[in-house]
Design brief:
Two copies of one chain form a homodimer.
Chain A lengths: L26 E2 L2 H9 L3 E8 L2 E8 L1 E3 L2 E7 L3 H6 L6 E15 L7 E15 L3 H15 L12 H6 E7 L2 E7 L17 E9 L3 E2 L17
Antiparallel strand pairs in A: 1-9, 2-3, 2-6, 4-5, 5-8, 6-7, 6-10, 7-8, 7-9
């Protein structure tokens, strides 16, 4: 039987913007790699152009299928710029995991192990109320999975004060480096320590708010922190 | 006696670009705060405009006094765009530390504790050979203090293959959030756990390269990892 919906391709089509000028062997376009990098993080750096000049804002994002969402006050600059008659806001959304410091024998070959995703596209304000509420839940759950079901949902006033931008995953690339240093053959005998220092984000024990009633236990979804 | 050089002001002058549209109480312009945030990190997200569209690249930076440096291949896009007759490249360089996840009783008041710095300016290619070599050392030392003196310096060929951009600290702001959740008074009795999950980057035990001679010890500046 023919599928009801067209099959989703396994990879994003490279474009002139998403093919790096160098280290092309580090680039990837397959959906699985891109989703995996996006799903393990929640902070992105969102770039847009204002009065001809670049602006880069750190902000949260969530992935829902082939869409990313970011949110902000209805008064914030990028949200306003994408709103109104809504021509959309050209953006570049970048997510980066730092995995390790690569110390080579030569200063030149020092490097980083990392995984990053860069998404180019036009962000649009979400106007459908159902999509907006689902996006707000997704933003909470991207940071702490399960949390949206264990907190008070946004009320009408809060939802009205929040703008949500949608960015389709279409023009997307991943870039990554793994492994040890790549020293020059003539440097191998130099007396410098060489290797990788692994790096990752870690979390401390959750600190209850001062006004939390002692009867409220730490929920199971927070016990892994 | 009059100072030989004019005194450095204690703060960066706010501009229209560096005054946030909201949460202004989270913004800071004093040099000490800005330097402190910059000096505790080495990965930035560098934004620039290419063909009218934003691009956000993760890259390393170093601070030397009132200048930031980033580097890349002489063939990479932003480096080429800042070179040639060198009109300079308008950039926004953003550095972000994530310090904690703030879980409020309401989804709306979920937040992040963070410290970030945003630098706007025109980046220029460094052409002075001495400044360039010092910047390359600073880039290595920003990541691992002391490392540049314990590795082989760049030779002429490597230095020629590397372009360095300089960005003056002039139009600069910091933004940060600290503390616990700010729930609405009417939500205080809700039965949801609330508090902060501390977050930070941590490092694992350094992993020697496969070809490191066993006689080379782990240097003292790496023993803290």
């Amino acid at each position: 039987m023919a599928p009801v919906t067209p099959p989703v391709p396994d990879a994003y089509a490279p474009t002139e913007r998403t093919v790096p000028t160098r280290s092309r062997e580090r680039a990837a376009y397959d959906r699985e790699t891109v989703h995996s990098i996006l799903d393990q993080e929640y902070v992105c750096h969102l770039g847009f152009v204002r009065d001809g000049r670049p602006v880069v804002l750190p902000t949260l994002y969530a992935r829902v299928g082939e869409r990313l969402y970011v949110h902000g006050s209805t008064g914030s600059r990028p949200l306003r710029m994408a709103g109104g008659e809504d021509p959309g806001l050209p953006v570049c959304l970048t997510v980066t995991h730092l995995d390790g410091l690569v110390l080579a024998r030569s200063a030149f070959h020092h490097s980083m192990n990392y995984r990053s995703v860069m998404v180019h596209g036009i962000a649009h304000q979400v106007t459908d109320p159902g999509e907006k509420l689902a996006a707000l839940d997704a933003l909470v759950d991207q940071v702490v999975p399960g949390r949206s079901a264990d907190s008070r949902p946004a009320n009408a006033k809060e939802a009205a004060a929040t703008a949500v931008l949608r960015l389709d995953l279409d023009e997307v690339s991943a870039k990554m480096r793994t492994g040890g240093p790549n020293d020059e053959p003539e440097d191998l005998e130099l007396p410098y320590w060489t290797g990788v220092i692994p790096a990752r984000r870690t979390y401390g024990t959750p600190v209850p708010a001062d006004d939390l009633a002692p009867s409220v236990p730490l929920p199971s979804y927070l016990r892994g922190y």
